[in-house]
Amino acid sequence: MTYASPPSPLSDALVQDAEDQLRTALLQSDVEALERLFSPMLVFVNHLGQRLTREDTLAIHRSDRIRIDSLLPSDAVVRVAGEVGVVSVRTHINGVYNEQETAGDYRFMRVWRLAEGGALQLIAAQATPAAD
Question: DSSP character for 29?
């Protein structure tokens, strides 16, 4: 006898909604929203190859070290497996990082996990300069 696994409560649409919430929080420097979206176990490798924790990342957003003026996503792929969603997206970014104007295209890989209470939280992310 075989048993079908129950349908996943996670969907592409829920993952995309979390991505939209993240984009809005980043553009508005909304640290409270980022605190909700970032899992305590977050590991982020930034565009410089530096590994950051949740607290490292939040500290950057609390400071004046970063300002994001625009985030233009394209070429997004969303995959859902059980309680985990994976996103690969190309994003054009304009802003300031460590007092330097920056603009460029980056590939982001983000891993979202369904947390207790049904909210999605970011558990892993990586930013890589995009190849043309």
Answer: T
The tokens for 118 are: 């049904």
In the chain, the amino acid numbered 59 is A
Query: pTM of the full predicted structure?
Result: 0.90
Report pLDDT for 117: 85
Contacts of 121 (CB under 8 A, 6+ apart): 36, 37, 38, 39, 42, 112, 113, 115
Bridge partners (DSSP) of residue 94 are 70, 103
Distance CA 109, CA 90 (A): 9
| Dihedral class, residue 20 (left if φ above 0, else alpha if ψ from -120 to 50, else beta) | alpha
Domains of the chain: 12-129 (3.10.450.50)
From the first residue on, what is the mean pLDDT of each consecutive set of 10 residues in the chain (132 residues)?
63 96 97 98 95 97 93 97 97 93 96 92 98 82
Handedness of CA 41, 95, 108, 30 (dihedral sign): positive
User: What tokens were used for 28?
Assistant: 């508005």
Enter the tokens of residue 55. 């607290």
The three-class DSSP label of residue 34 is helix
